Amino acid sequence: MPDLFAHAVIGYCLGTALSFRYDWLTPTYVTVVMAGAFVPDVAKIFLLVPDAVVSDALGLPFSWFALHTVGGSAVAVLIGVVLVAGEERRRVLGLLSLGTASHLVADALLLTATGYSKPMWWPVAHVGLPSPGLYLSSEPTPLFVASAVAVVLWALRRRRAKAE
């Protein structure tokens, strides 16, 4: 997968691009899109707390990988939505979902040895779907491309703000 910073930059690009169309989408809301791009990687908590530790504590089978699926990410997004003020929930739901979707799509484009992505589309699909294999997880290309687009969008946004 692209690194976490690349996911954040992709979220920034999406949020900033949408801010040209929607005046209410301020930099604060762009940050919400970026936060949504982090949601699937919460599964990396397994590095600190292994699956077996949680499984033993709960007495049930457990895997952190569920957070890196559509279903697990949807639950995490809904938890995030509940934490904001009622009048902000609709916007936050859409923006967190956009960031999360961008993360999952970027990960689905990886080049894998099998030619299939991880089974991250649960509950839509229970197996990994064919991956177009655009880049390796270790390649910096997604970050470079997203960063170049982000710089252009930042400059356009700044220019637009000065004109107003």
TrEMBL record:
- Name the keywords, alphabetized: Hydrolase, Membrane, Transmembrane, Transmembrane helix
Q: Does the keyword RNA-binding apply?
A: no
Residue intervals passing through the bilayer? 62-85, 92-113, 133-156
Q: Name one GO molecular function term.
A: hydrolase activity
Matching InterPro entries? YdjM-like
The name on file for this protein is Metal-dependent hydrolase
